[in-house]
Amino acid sequence: MSESFYERLSFFDSTYLAMERPNSYMHIAAILTFEAGPLARPDGGVDIDRIRAFIGSKLSLIPRYRQRLDRVPVDGVPVWVDDAHFSLDYHVRHTALPRPGTDAELKRLAARVFAQHLDRSRPLWEIWVIEGLDLDRFAMVIKVHHSMIDGMAGVDILQAIMSLYPTDDVAEAEPWEPRPVPSSTRLLVDEAARIARVPLDLARNAAGLLSNRAGAQAELRHRAEAVVNAVRTGWFNRTGTTPVNETLSPHRRFEWLTVDLDRVKDVKNALGGTVNDVVLAVVAGAVRAFLGERGVDLDSLEYRVMVPVSVRPDDEQNRMGNQVAMWLVDMPIAEPDPVKRLSAIRATVEDLKMSDAALGATILTQAASWMPLNLLSLGVRLVYAAARPFNMTVTNVPGPQIPIYLLGSKLLANYPMVPLYMDHGIGVALFSYDGDIDWGLVADYDLVPDLDRFAAAISSSLDDLWKAASRVARAQKRKAARRAAAGGA
């Protein structure tokens, strides 16, 4: 008989469990649309048995998908254990839209799926295979709790079931035997031993740092400054109230749009910055227009977005769990000029980079992991309830820039869905794929009945930036031509 197994959740992963409320779900998701191709059945459906068998054959690559939550007795620390009753049929679900299903119907279905809690007695994921779409397509809604995965790891999981070329090969699933769940006594003893080791680990880390006396003082100063800068960015400063930063309902809306990645790069190349800087500037313009329509006083409103930043080392790209820091970016929504908005965001992001805010947030997270979980959970809730340090989440995950396939079916688009934190009526997530950027917009059903107008505001904001960038690019070309002509003369 194999030995018992468990794995303690990190503090960061545990936080997503603690933050989850009845009307605020801490899972992430995505709608993937595919060409039906060889997975189409003669009756117009899709071959769900083949898809399910294929997903099952890949689970050995992502063992967390066959693990469930358990708790250490007394203090309730969450741990992962193998699920002895794992059922692939439960997790890979099959449904259909009335033919011919439209994008609007798919968005409504995905929003309803998203607005349901995952069962914590089972592995925290679901995949819904949806047939009946028009244009010879089918869709998948992939839904995973944030305690299991961050955005960058999500790309790895997508890669586990996708390939760079079409294939009809479905390997036989590797045999899997769940390891026994450890006894309550072992969990208690191990947790007590972990707590007892904390002072020793701290001393060992300090000794390692001080072994290089020349650099120890500079490193300590660097880390202290990073922590101060992380706090200074606004985690304890309350942002402004808007009509879409109110109490959430249990229901969600979902909208998407696709933009040409080259169009965003044109803006970047002409006006400077990065693709992510341009994305944030586009969001700032959209928020300005959307809140302006609601009569919000933009000049006096402090509006901030949270931008996850991966701190995952290169040698841990395939490891599950969250390894992200969070930047808080002040959005210049009072600025009417799109070029000046981009310039302001570039300056803010550059300051965050120079101040090592991501490092500071990581150190704070590591320090928090040494404290009792129940106190930390209470602290997290109090910070979000009393301070609301940001108004919206904007996350941008880079994906492959070539076509990828589920068996023989080509992926057409991947629209991500981000959880809504307390009092956050809208969340924005992006995934770049095959020359496009797919935007996924999640909103509270009651607070944002006109989510389509926010999507339109994003398109308009990008158009404004692109037009401004085109004018700058043309001016640069004329200037270069004059210089060339003068040099030739």
Can you offer a commentary on this structure?
- It is a single chain.
- The chain is α+β, with helices and mostly antiparallel strands.
- The protein has a domain of 199 residues.
- It is 42% helix and 22% strand.
- It has 13 helices and 15 strands.
- The chain has a 6-stranded mixed beta sheet, sandwiched between helices.
- The N and C termini lie far apart (87 Å).
- About 6% of the residues have low confidence.
Task: Kindly list the characteristics that best describe this protein.
6-stranded mixed β-sheet; 13 helices; alpha+beta; 489 residues; globular
Low-confidence stretches: 222-228, 312-322, 363-372
Q: What is the averaged pLDDT score?
A: 84
- Strand portion: 15-25%
What's the count of strands?
Answer: 15
| Largest sheet entry | 6 strands, mixed
